[in-house]
Amino acid sequence: MKTNFRSRLKHGETLLGTLVTLSSPEVAEILAEAGFDWLFIDMEHSPLDVREAQAILQAVGERCACVLRVPLNDEIWIKKALDIGASGLIIPQVNSRQEAERAVRFCKYSPQGSRGVGVARAQGYGARLQDYLDSANDEIAVIVQAEHIDGVNHVQEIVSVAGIDAVLVGPYDLSASMGKIGKVADAEVQAAIARVKVACASAHMPIGIFAATAEAAKPFMREGYSLIAVGIDTIFLVEAANQLVRQLRE
């Protein structure tokens, strides 16, 4: 593999990314050219399928890392996402030690896990198969999401699981699980997020978070969050179009 995303993540570098939800490879290519360290390819809340995600990875190439969020902690989804050449995976709704162990098992080849061996894009369609098999466990990042109060309550157990490389906070789903949907600034929601941060710090585990805007992201960066996803491709388009129309109608 050619990316050093996992190494940079584990060394605590601040890695700036953004969400890709549109099936256009050109959009992903534009975002990669903008200078992001990574792209958060979202297969959970978008209509992206595996073939469309692969086209995005092909368009982005080596410009930046592509990290895929699979729809669920499922062996088939994880296998397919890794086989198309992802630099890492984001596993949603990991709420217990057992679920964290399950994610690692599906992401790692033997002996660390049970990932199946298949010929696919990730190893040059077979041209670099053995090299990939030898390096994948060390080079693919496994990131779990803390986005439910159950996950917060079990976060100490989750971060102790060998093979987990980072925790990504999902503030909006977390707020919903606490009966405060969308109220991410609520004191109780912020306290839950702080619990995740403390657990990650105690385990020397990188922590990440989603922020809607640059201004929302900056405080997290100052507080030591190193895996930052800011904005969404569709919102960039919405905001630019709305701003243009407003300027023309003034």
CATH fold call: TIM Barrel
Order of helices and strands: HEHEHEHEHHEHHEHHEHEH
Number of helices: 12
Largest sheet: 8 strands, parallel, barrel
In spatial order, strands of the major sheet run 1-2-3-4-5-6-7-8
Shape: globular
| CATH class category name | Alpha Beta
Mean pLDDT: 96
Helix content: 40-55%
Rg from alpha-carbon coordinates: 18 Å
What amount of the residues lies in strands? Answer: 15-25%
User: CA-to-CA gap between the ends?
Assistant: 52 Å
User: What CATH architecture would you give?
Assistant: Alpha-Beta Barrel
CATH superfamily: Phosphoenolpyruvate-binding domains
Number of strands: 8
Runs with pLDDT <50, length 5+?
A: none
Structural class: alpha/beta
What is the count of distinct domains? 1
Tell me about this structure.
By secondary structure, the protein is α/β, with parallel strands linked by helices. The chain has a single domain (5-249), classed as Phosphoenolpyruvate-binding domains (TIM Barrel, Alpha-Beta Barrel). 46% of the residues lie in helices and 16% in strands. The protein has twelve helices and eight strands. It has an eight-stranded parallel beta barrel with strand order 1-2-3-4-5-6-7-8, surrounded by seven helices. Helix 3 (50-60) links the parallel strand 2 (38-42) and strand 3 (65-69). Helix 2 packs parallel to helix 3 (50-60). The longest helix has 17 residues, at 233-249. It is globular, with a radius of gyration of 18 Å. The N and C termini lie far apart (52 Å). The model has no long low-confidence stretch (mean pLDDT 96).
